[in-house]
Specification:
It is built from two helices and seven strands, in the order H-E-E-E-E-H-E-E-E. It is of the alpha+beta class and 130 residues long.
């Protein structure tokens, strides 16, 4: 049996589809500089480039969902929308697929992006089935 090493594309596709339940606008790895359409909110899905393997038990890494909501009146955090997005993401856990399991969501400090949005990031552990 051939070992599958870090199926990054497959994991990103699955996480992106899940994030579409939270926002219509989902980006992978980096957000666009600007779009012709003014976004009200969006989710950024990221995976690191490193992975560790502990014996034959599996491969391990982390993932992140960063949720962005447009500021109210151009400067105030839209606390209600960010709270809705945070709740929707955290309720998805654990995420279990034949390829990987994502668990232990941890809310990281957010803030302003200085471009009209505030954000919250949720980091989580990923165990890849090998």
């Amino acid at each position: 049996m051939e070992q599958k090493i870090y199926p990054r594309g497959e994991i990103l596709r699955t996480l992106t589809e899940l994030a579409k339940e939270v926002s219509n606008d989902v980006f992978v790895t980096t957000r666009p500089q600007a779009t012709s359409e003014q976004l009200e909110d969006f989710v950024l899905v990221r995976l690191p480039q490193n992975i560790r393997q502990e014996g034959d038990a599996g491969q391990y890494t982390y993932g992140q969902f960063s949720m962005f909501a447009r500021d109210i009146e151009g400067r105030y955090e839209d606390v209600m929308r960010l709270d809705e997005m945070q709740s929707a993401i955290t309720e998805m856990f654990p995420i279990v697929t034949p390829t990987f399991t994502a668990t232990r969501p941890l809310i990281l400090a957010g803030g302003t992006d200085q471009a009209g949005f505030h954000f919250i990031t949720i980091q989580f552990e990923i165990q890849i089935t090998i």
